């Protein structure tokens, strides 16, 4: 166990960054495209992080919230995954929202003439 990954770095990269990160990025984009509030993205990321932790548990033998003897370890890695997925979701949302604003209100930037 290290500060970022519980089982191995390959498992962390595959599940948290590739699968979870891709889903978080797309979730951020989706909430930006429909102009949803930030709290809705936060709720989706909380659920997505729980799903990613379940994949860590079921496929790679990582800790989960039950049994209670592994709760503190599971909570720590849940928070690590939450920070990573939350950052990727926020980045996806912000980039999509920036493109939306530039397209919709391009006349405000002065580039269009």
Structural key phrases:
mainly alpha
Task: Walk me through the topology.
Layout: H1 9-33, H2 38-60, H3 71-104
In round numbers, the mean pLDDT is 92
Distance between the termini: 57 Å
Strand content: under 5%
Query: Major beta sheet, specifics?
Result: none
Q: Name the shape in a single word.
A: elongated
Order of helices and strands: HHH
Report on the structure:
- With 113 residues, the protein is mostly helical.
- Helix content is 73%, strand content 0%.
- The protein contains three helices and no strands.
- The chain has helices spanning 9-33, 38-60, 71-104.
- Helix 1 runs antiparallel to helix 2 (38-60) and helix 1 packs parallel to helix 3 (71-104).
- The longest helix is centred in the C-terminal third of the chain and has 34 residues, at 71-104.
- The radius of gyration is 17 Å and the shape is elongated.
Question: What does this entry show, briefly?
Answer:
With 113 residues, this protein is an all-alpha fold.
């Amino acid at each position: 166990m290290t500060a970022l990954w519980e089982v191995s770095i390959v498992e962390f990269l595959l599940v948290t960054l590739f699968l979870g990160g891709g889903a978080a990025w797309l979730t951020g984009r989706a909430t930006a495209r429909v102009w949803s509030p930030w709290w809705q993205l936060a709720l989706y990321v909380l659920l997505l992080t729980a799903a990613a932790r379940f994949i860590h548990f079921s496929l790679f033998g990582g800790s989960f919230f039950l049994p209670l003897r592994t709760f503190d370890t599971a909570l720590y890695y849940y928070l690590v995954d939450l920070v990573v997925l939350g950052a990727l979701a926020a980045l996806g949302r912000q980039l999509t929202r920036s493109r939306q604003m530039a397209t919709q209100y391009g006349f405000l930037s002065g580039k269009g003439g």
